[in-house]
Every structure is written in C-alpha cells, then in structure tokens.
Amino acid sequence: MRTKLLYRGLIVVVLTFAISLTYAQDNLKIKGLSFVGSSSPIDNADVAPIVTMNANWVTLMPYGFVGKNGMVTYNSKWQWWGEKEEGVKETIELCKASGLKIMLKPQIWMMSAYTGDYKLSNEQEWEIFEKSYAAFIFSFLEIAIAHDVEMFCIGTEWREFVKARPEFWNELIKKAKLKYKGDLTYAANWDDYQAVPFWEQMDIIGVNGYFPISISAKPDLKELTMGWDVHKKTLSAFAKKYDRKIVFTEIGYRSMEGATVKPWEHNTRSKFSAEIQHNAYKALFNVLWEEEWFGGMFIWKWYHNHESQGGNGDLDFTPQNKLAEKTIRSFWSK
C-alpha cells in the first residue's frame, strides 16, 4: 500500500511539473498588442483593457517622418502625445505597472509611399538620411535603456534601404548592441524577410506577418487554415536555419470581405465581416501557436479609448469590440 501511495505521489509530482512546464513555455510566447499612441495623456484605465485581453506584451510605435531634404523629423510639437518622447516614457511606465512587457518600435511613416521602396540616388543623399535615421533610432534606444524595455526594434520594412546600405546597418546594429542589453529585432515585411542579411546579429527574427492566406474574398476556416499551412513550412525552415524564434512584429486583419487576400491593404473598402476577421485569427492560432519556433505576435492594432473603438461596421484592423476580440482573448487565456 505504501509503495502504491508513493508511486501515485510520484505521478502527481511529475504531472504537476509537466503542466507547470507547459504553462511556463506558453507564457514565454508573446501575446502582444500594438498600442497606438494617443493624442493626449492616458492613465491606468486606458491600459486595463489590454490586461483583460490576457496580453503580456505591448509594442509602442513612436513615428518619424522623412522630409524632402532626406531628414527624419520626430518628437515634433505637432505630433500626438503618445508618439513623442514624453508620451512614450509615461506609457512605458503605465504598461510596466500593469505587468506588461514592452517592445519599443520607432518607425518611419511616409504619407504617399511605401517605406520598403525608399531609396536615394547618390552617396551624399544617403549619408544625410542615414545620419538622421540613426539619431532617430538612438534617441528612442536611450529611452529603452533608461526604462528597462525588454525588446527594441531597429527598423521596419526597409527592403531597399537594407539591400543598398549593408555597411550602415551593420554599424547601426553594432553600436546598438554595445549600449542595449535587451532583445534586439528588426521588423521585415512578409515578402522580403528571407533577404535580410543580418538575422544572425538579431536575437529574434521579426516578421510583419501580412501573408495572403486565401484566394477568395469570403473564405471559410478550412481555406484559411490551408493558407497558413503553406507559410508554416517556410517559416519553420527559416527559424531552424538561423536558430532563432520568429515573432510577428505585426499581424492583423481588417474586419471585411477580402481581408485575407491582401491583408496589408489598409485603404480599400468592402462589406463588413466580423466573421472573416474572427476566422483569420482562429486559423492563425490553430496552425502556428503551438509551434516551438513561433515566439508570438503583436496584433495590429489597439487604441487607448477602448469603449469607442471598433465595433459593428468598423473596417479597421482593430479587433476591439468585435468578434475577434473574444477570439483572441479566449486563445490567450489557455
């Protein structure tokens, strides 16, 4: 009898350890929301809905803008509070006080062009732009260091810039790593992440995961699942090649018909569909979430004034007050 009791006790201990280990591994995955900078100061009440989503990370995106002279302007008086240094610092502290980890992701917004296509015609222009861009990045890197930010993203979707100026990127990364001891990543677009030459210098492979996952405008869950199955094979092999986790530094779907054909499109309009957005996330979770190489995601996007965002008829990427919000919260609670 005593032997049986000891045996049963050992099984309980082993099972408890296995469950705890599984829970710990799941907790290591990034359950992140892309927290849009607000026009005015926020408080704890604006962060609380993020916590109730069962998120454990947020990414903050202070924006810079490239002028005709090739200079990056940022932290300007006309920018929103949440995009400037003051707002970024306060938002970091609010999120950390709520138990959230942070990725700081300063990025460039171009009004009439895609960042990935940006290129210059001569050495002088490149040098002016590079000096300005480096100053932009390092100003926010200093904030990341001072506030113990867990992850920093050195660039977003710079396809032509990365291709044309490898020396600049190598030097930028080298200087960043001398200063910053958190995880360093870069946010490559879904269609060019395999061409980025410096993944071995990164701690995490960052991909903006707007992969097309259907050919029909009104796909069912089966089609969306098959769509992700195709991309999973390539992503898995790539993560293995570099021995790095892949994190979707952005991932999102608009709540409308056609949203999964070209998920990156943000200006098109179609018929509202909460179901398509819901099924797109469901397929993503079903196919990728349990993969060992998959480090998690930052969902695009989440606004501070939760009660007035999203909802029925809204075609934006945000899942707020839509069926997808419940879908994400449910998966992240497991």
Range of strand content: 15-25%
Q: Note the run of SSEs as H and E.
A: HEHEEEHEEHEHHEEHEHEH
Count the E strands. Answer: 11
Top CATH class: Alpha Beta
Question: Strand count, sense and closure of the main sheet?
Answer: 8 strands, parallel, barrel
User: Order of strands side by side in the largest beta sheet?
Assistant: 1-2-5-7-8-9-10-11
Q: Tally the helices: what do you get?
A: 9
Based on the coordinates given, report the CATH architecture: Alpha-Beta Barrel
Describe this structure in words.
The chain contains nine helices and eleven strands. The protein is of the alpha/beta class. It has one domain (31-332): TIM Barrel (Alpha-Beta Barrel). An eight-stranded parallel β-barrel has the order 1-2-5-7-8-9-10-11, surrounded by four helices. Strands 4-3-6 form a three-stranded mixed beta sheet, covered by helices on one side. Helix 7 packs across helix 8 and helix 8 runs parallel beside helix 9 (323-332). The chain starts with a helix and ends with a helix.
